[in-house]
Amino acid sequence: MAAALLSTFLLSACTGPQSVFGAAGREASAIEDLIVVTAVGAACAWFIVTSLLIYAGRVRRHRFAEETAQRFITWGGVVIPTVLLFALLSYALWSMPATRPWFDRQQADLEIEVTGEQYWWRIRYLNTSGDVAFETANELKLPVDRRIRVSLKANDVIHSFWIPALGGKMDMIPGRTNTLWLEPTRIGSYRGPCAEFCGTSHALMTLTAIVMTMEDFETWRQGRINKSPTSADAGAAFQRNGCPACHAIDGTDAKGLVGPNLTAFKDRLRLGAAANTRDNLFRFIRDAGEFKPGAQMPAFPMIPEGELNAIVDYLAGET
Amino acid sequence: MRIFPRDLETLWTLFTAPVVWAVHFLACYLTVAIHCAKGGGERQFAMLQFVLGGVTLAALATIAISAFLAWRQWGFGTTDPPHDDPTEEARKLFQGFATLLLSALSFVAVLFVATPLLAIDGCFS
After folding, report:
1. N or C terminus: which one in chain B shows less Cβ crowding within 10 Å?
2. Burial class (CB in 10 A: 0-12, 13-18, 19+), B1
3. Do B112 and A86 touch (CB under 8 A)?
4. Does pLDDT of A275 surpass 80?
């Protein structure tokens, strides 16, 4: 009863948007299979060894003959463990092409470049010639059933890209480009943490992957590529207070590259480490460190409240 | 002419199999790493697999010979361990038995090290 209760609690953590056991990608499914097979193999070994221990200690209380004991040690201590380990190793090796798939670049349906920054994700969608088509941050929109080539970079320290529901993790190393292939198989929203300690707000550096139909993705992508320019008046407060020095908004004069690109900000589900609401946005601009300790964005206590509200209005309406 | 030496009074008999295991490990991993770092193609990789397969067979054969020598030193299993008497004979038997066990471990380890060769298609570039 206690074991059943305990396993219920443990297994209840095996689902959700950030779980290897809720696989929504081809690589994640292969990893899930590998975990299950390995765990079952280990459980069998544990069960057999524990049963023998109980048998020897509780049931059979007299000595084995020396020859029997030696034979038992040879088989139970050498042959069977070697064969079992070899079988598990062979399975793990056999599944390697699926647990870390690799293709030629021309086989990609879509190319994305993700750069780890303290403490956010710079996401660049590339066009067919490999140039940047547009940039966004912290939300990775992906088409279902398409092969996606993700180039992983880092700008400051080592980060690690990991969306457990879609695939395995891979480090993002400054000065180096690593390549990961993702193939989402289920529509939905999945969470990814930074999987390598990168500083004070490491635990708050999260990524949301939104898997959508190809039609929805194409509509969104075209909307971003062909974004109509915003009138200069709308973003006057944004311009006046120096925000474009660090942030860019496509279709405007704001072309800063230090911080996240804020184009279509209204559509983002999250703002840094909190929900994307007007109140949170106001507080984030006032003091980003309140949400993300150690964030590169300085506090702005000097911006008058009216001006700050105008910036919030502008960003909240930025689609 | 003798193929095998009459007496094995050196610790090298004990170390032979683990050394072969270590050399085989380095041969496999370093060769593949260097080949891939130099941008090696698929056809060359198939050749590399073939060559390393040969190296693996040579390593296994060497370990098997080491095991045979150890078995002989142990007296072909005619006496049982632990061979802990303070005599030269017991020391020789103990060394033979330990070498035999190390050879078995090294044999399995070489097989485990070589298995990825069957699963790897080529280099990631």
Report:
1. N
2. exposed
3. yes
4. yes
